[in-house]
Write the structure tokens for this entry.
Amino acid sequence: MTSAQCSPSALEHVDRMLRFNAGDSGIDASEAQPRTVGRVGVIGAGVMGCAIAATNLSRNLPVIMADADADALARSGRTIPQLAAELAQPEPPCEATRAGVVLAKSEQEFAPCDLIIESIVETLEVKRKVLQRVEPQLSADVVIGSNTSTIPIVQLARGLAAPDRLCGIHFCNPVRYRRLVEIVRGPQTSDLTIATAVAYAKQLSKLPIVVRDNPGFLVNRILFPYLSAALELLSEGIDARQIERVALSFGMQLGPLGLMDLIGIDTAFYAGRSMYDTFRDRIVASPILPALFKAGRLGQKKGIGFYVYDPNRAQPEIDDSLSRYVEQYIRQRYTLSDEQVEIRLLVPMLLEATRALEEGLVRAPCDIDLATIFGLGFPAERGGLLFWADQIGAAAILALLEPLKRLGKRAAPTALLLQMAAENARFHRPE
Ligand code: NAI
């Protein structure tokens, strides 16, 4: 499956998508003009909040930062300007970077902001409380974006006086290397909010795509079947090194286990649980993730997860003691070829992408290709998930699904794929 899919036209396809995206306002059939964003408030000085704040500073947008944890907030005052200066390179630090971040003692200090990003812990009740506390401090035209990975915007908007000003502004981790930003349109979100969020993301040199509200939006809808497949492979006795090697040799920037370490095992667990609650027929609740979580192996931020991150080694390595957390959960052992592992990792993502198209989550198939390349580290030289699938063809993909029948419903062909195979159709029209 691997070798046949690299196509020189893939990079042309990527180039075309980028050019289209640059001119896209994110709204159809509306004259809404984006509001100017000159100052940004960030709530949550964790991994993501700090990276988002630094990105803003590096683009000369002053930031006001808040966090419930005074130590985390104080730390962020030191780390954010450093990170912003690194991001600005080779240019010298701009005025906002030099001025640093303003640390807020109360929500009232957000009053001068034009846009707020909430990036606190992934728990509905906590996020809702914070949003309801902040909203009255803001003037009517301020846009509020949540960086939630999985929680529907409609649920976060409940209790807000002006739910039309709330949208998802979902950055991808690591923020400095992943250009994609999902702008999530809730049922009440206004065109003005969407246009402002899209223009703001472009101000940060990011690549915004507008997606319809649903648990996991687009990026995590596609990501979780990939992560879930990797955990399932582990519990079938497939070696962690084989899983990672196959993903990397396909061209993924990170293997699924390395990616979970980067996301944070705790965050992956919470977000995975929220995805599992909604999509029980597609995600396998693996006991391996909670076992690592309980053991404090939270991934890169703790120096150990699936991998061990030893500063004295050039590359992180799968930790030998990982087997302690995996072996007890192996029920039946399989031996799979690299090609079989590749299919197990990639085809679930593709099936989920076809479901996203069926549900109208994106405005165009190109947004799925942009999301996978610039949000999930899918290889650009394969043109994105759907472009890659077009090179294989719908009928051949159905054939790849045949041996996966034992996995049940989640590996069953979708209606869209069956129809495409019958009509010999493609996701993208050939240029
Ligand atoms: P984190 O655990 O590193 O940081 C969360 C921060 O929120 C902590 O500093 C905590 O003190 C603060 N906090 C908790 N409750 C608070 C409250 N009531 N008021 C103010 N601050 C509060 O988490 P991380 O990874 O930065 O995630 C933050 C958000 O970003 C979550 O919604 C997550 O789903 C989302 N996200 C995470 C990604 C990842 O890969 N880690 C990727 C994209 C989005």
